[in-house]
Structure formats: structure tokens, C-alpha cells
Specification:
With about 400 residues, the chain is an alpha+beta fold. Among the domains are: about 140 residues, Glutaredoxin (3-Layer(aba) Sandwich); about 100 residues, Electron Transport Ethylamine Dehydrogenase (Sandwich). A hairpin with a 5-residue loop joins strand 1 and strand 2.
């Protein structure tokens, strides 16, 4: 009889252990749903829409040859990749470009394009071994296709129509342009929209509903079982248990929920530094330090104007701007450090372009994502750190 009881206890312990393992695996799946997004080139606003006919134009390459870009090409498509010698992401993408040249040579011609001094680009071509690619320098070419960030690719089909375009930071982004051309869509965003709006059978609808409910449940489990979430829940329980007997019921019902707003909810109340020499609301785009910022404000994610929110990492590479303090009418050098690796950006977006330059000169452009040297290249928000007083040029 004692052996039977012991075996039952062991079976229940094994079942409990198996359940704990299943919960842990489900939590990891939820984290993957939170952190992973569809891989594809990010389409930006451009003068030409997908499907528009491109104008044929001829340009002089660095090697002196004449390169024809745009227009019908008798059965061959053309990929124009905009890059720059000072762009680290562009250099990391070059092996994928060389691979695409060999794998897609039966139907595709690749042209590299940029802007700036010819000497620097000639040196870049020699150092990176890009002699097999036509290399064109033309600011007008980039403007005609609405190039705002680098590296940026434009795919023109054999009929001369714009097939796809967007930011290409990885090999997957570059190959997504080829897939978009095959499927007849302009970007991953358009593909997802069409898939969501397309007709579906009753069985497909049921499966999609089950997948959606499962994904929501796993996301919620991952959020509730995260370390910060567990500690926050325990802290709220301790504080609430101590304060509950002290508050009248009517007073608790009349409390304003806005006073306990989560700083990561995007509804953070406005606040300043409290220093009369540093005036302004640090959660608003018109705060004086944000004169040249382009991105989301870290003060809306639980961070501060000079520190990243929890769970993110500050990039060591930064964009520098100069802003005037209305308190003392002096110019200050501001370092805009990006915070990387947190939730996707989108809260409190600001686009102030004081002193901005074309993206082909990345050292003077504020639209480049500076998440280099960090564990994650996923952008979350930007800080504005004072480095010192700017000296007037004489």
C-alpha cells in the first residue's frame, strides 16, 4: 500500500513539473510574439507610388561609363541601392548585395548610387571591392525616388514600372523586395493589409480566430510573468494592502485614474525639470532641447530627457545638434542618443529638423537610426543630453 501511495505522489509531482515546463515554454513563445515583427523592407513616403512608370535617365558612373536608369529594359529588372561610405549598415549589407548579384543575375541588374565627393566614393569602391557594380553619384536621382534614409533600395521591373522600394537594413529586407515583385505587392505592409482583407473560407476564419486568441493569451502571459511585471505586482499588492484600510470607500471611488497613469502607456502627464534655467515641458516636442530631434521621446516611455527607459540600451553613436536655451539665450550642444531594444517606437513622435542635411551625408542627418554598437538594432526612443555651451563661429 505504501508503494502505491509513493507512486501516486511521484506521478503528481511529475505532472506538476510538466505543467510548469509547459507554462515556461508558453511564456517564451509569448516573448517571441512581442519581440519579433514581419521581416520586410520598410516602405516610406516617396514621390513615385508602386506601379508608377519611371522616367528613363542616363548618368555618368565613377568609371566613366554611361548608366541608364529607369524605363523599360527588354526583359530585365533593375535594382538601385542608395548607400554611403559613412554608413555602417550599408557596409554590412554589401555581402548580401554581392550574393544577390550572382543569384539573380538572370533577370536583375544592380546599380549603386550615392552623392558627395567622387574621391571618397572611389576609395570606398576600392576598399569594398565594388568594381563590378555601376556606381552613380547624383543627388537628383535620390530626390526623384524620395530617398530619406540609408540604405534604401528601389526595384524597377522589366516594363519600367516601380515594383517595390524601402529601407533595407538586412539580407531579409533586400530579398523581400524580390518577393514583393513576385507577389505583385509594393511592401510587406501592403501584403499584410491585403492578406487581412482578402476573402477567407469558414475554416480559415476559425483557424485565424484560434491563432489570434492564442497569440493574445501568450502575449498576456509573457507580460504578466516578466520580472518587472512580477515585482511591480508584488509592490502594488503590498502598498495597496497597507493603504486600503486608511481610505474611505467614497474617496477611493472618486480618485482620478489619471494620477496613477503608467508612464509607459503613452499618456504621461506633462512635466518639467523644475529648474528655471531649463524651462519647458520635457514630454512635448517644443521643449528647447528637442530643436533637432527626429523620433520618439524617452520621457513617454518611463525614461528621462537624459536617460533611457528600463529595458533599453543607449547607443554609443549619436546625432549632434545645437539648440538655443530661451532662459539665457545661449546655444548648447545637444547629443541625441537613441535608446534601443525596448518596445517598438511610436509614442510622442517629434520631427524637428533644425540644421538637418540630406541623408547622403549621415553625419549631418537626424533621420538615421543610430542603434549601432548595441545588442539590439530595434529603435525605441531618443534622449537629449547637454554636452556643453556652443561657441559662436567667427
Amino acid at each position: 500500500m505504501s508503494y502505491l501511495i509513493a507512486s501516486q505522489i511521484l506521478l503528481w509531482l511529475g505532472l506538476a513539473t510538466l505543467g510548469a515546463i509547459c507554462i515556461a515554454l508558453a511564456r517564451q513563445i509569448g516573448l517571441l510574439h512581442q519581440r519579433l515583427a514581419p521581416v520586410g523592407a520598410l516602405a516610406l513616403r516617396a514621390p513615385l507610388q508602386v506601379g508608377a512608370l519611371t522616367q528613363e535617365a542616363a548618368f555618368d558612373a565613377l568609371d566613366g561609363s554611361r548608366v541608364r536608369i529607369g524605363g523599360a529594359r527588354s526583359g530585365r529588372s533593375q535594382l538601385i541601392l542608395f548607400l554611403s561610405p559613412g554608413c555602417a549598415v550599408c557596409e554590412a549589407l554589401l555581402p548580401a548585395v554581392r550574393s544577390a548579384q550572382g543569384a539573380e543575375r538572370a533577370w536583375l541588374d544592380i546599380v549603386l548610387a550615392s552623392d558627395g565627393a567622387a574621391d571618397a566614393h572611389s576609395r570606398f569602391v576600392r576598399e569594398q571591392g565594388l568594381g563590378k557594380f555601376p556606381y552613380v553619384l547624383s543627388e537628383a536621382l535620390g530626390r526623384s525616388y524620395g530617398v530619406a534614409k540609408l540604405p534604401y533600395a528601389v526595384l524597377i521591373d522589366e516594363t519600367g514600372k516601380l515594383a517595390a522600394s524601402g529601407l533595407v537594413n538586412t539580407r531579409e529586407h533586400l530579398e523581400s523586395l524580390f518577393v514583393a515583385k513576385e507577389r505583385g505587392v509594393g511592401s510587406i505592409q501592403q501584403f499584410l493589409v491585403q492578406r487581412g482583407r482578402g476573402p477567407a473560407s469558414a475554416g480559415e476564419t476559425v483557424v485565424a480566430d484560434i491563432e489570434l486568441l492564442t497569440e493574445r493569451a501568450l502575449r498576456g502571459l509573457a507580460s504578466r510573468t516578466a520580472r518587472r511585471g512580477v515585482f511591480g505586482l508584488l509592490g502594488n499588492l503590498l502598498v495597496g494592502a497597507a493603504a486600503l484600510p486608511l481610505l474611505p470607500v467614497a474617496r477611493a471611488e472618486e480618485a482620478s485614474p489619471a494620477m496613477d497613469a503608467d508612464p509607459n502607456s503613452g499618456q504621461t502627464p506633462g512635466h518639467g525639470s523644475g529648474n528655471p534655467q531649463d524651462p519647458g515641458d520635457q514630454t512635448k516636442c517644443d521643449y528647447w532641447r528637442y530643436c533637432a530631434i527626429d523620433g520618439s521621446l524617452c520621457t513617454c516611455y518611463g525614461g528621462t530627457v537624459s536617460s533611457c527607459p528600463p529595458g533599453t540600451e543607449m547607443s554609443p553613436v549619436t546625432w549632434i545638434g545645437t539648440c538655443r536655451n530661451p532662459a539665457d539665450q545661449r546655444n548648447y550642444i545637444i547629443s541625441y542618443n537613441d535608446c534601443c531594444g525596448g518596445v517598438p517606437w511610436g509614442r510622442c513622435p517629434c520631427q524637428n529638423n533644425q540644421g538637418d542635411r540630406p541623408v547622403v551625408r549621415p553625419q549631418n542627418n537626424n533621420e538615421v537610426t543610430w542603434c549601432f554598437g548595441t545588442q539590439s538594432q530595434s529603435y525605441t526612443c531618443s534622449t537629449a543630453i547637454i554636452l556643453g555651451v556652443a561657441l559662436e563661429q567667427k
